[in-house]
Fold this protein.
Amino acid sequence: MKLLKQLVDLEYQALSGHFELMQNISEINKLIKLISKLPGLGPKSAKRIILKLINNRQELMKPLAQTLSETYKNVIRCNNCGSLKSNDANCENCQINTKKHNKICVVENIADQWTIETSSIFKGYYHILGGTLSSSNYQNKQDLLLDSLIERVKKNNIDEVILATSATVEGQTTAFYIQDSLKNLNIKVSKLAQGLPVGGEIESLDDGTLISAFKNRKGLISESD
Ligand SMILES: [Zn+2]
């Protein structure tokens, strides 16, 4: 037991020494700052990740650097639906033409789409806003791709648009703005209501809550309006 503790202490000292050494190298400093910005990671985990990469230059660091660079160059946002697509390929999210749908679900981000897809509650097209209207880094209404949402509704004979934005102030403001933009289309517009906790983000909802929110969605505009 004592030996084990000594070993752990030794390893900790070695790691700490390594960390101090790492901090004097500007590339490493930059990396620590960048990786710390990723979701769920702080400086401590960033250092652990960097150490792992440095110790596995060929197997991890090189392919990761290459893949990041390729992703940066080749993966873009689709101008039509807001999903991600490869530069040289058609957008899969737009191309679900094998099965015709009559509903579009509007979500804030792709993680929300994945959560809804996993729950299997919705079968239809997705429109990804890429953010909300009033969040600090998202001021541009054009980026929400609302013109193309209206085009998609017309082109695909959509009869219902489901607004699945978060139950946050920004999410609801955005939903209201979209609802207003769609009011002349003579289609049903609904939004997730009951079961959605106030402040709840779609991507963090469990399947049960999400299914209930979809089933009990509230009509905002009906076709006869
Ligand atoms: Zn698309």
Summary: Residues 78, 80-81, 83, 91, 93-94 surround zinc ion (CB under 6 Å). The CA atoms of residues 110 and 128 lie 7 Å apart.
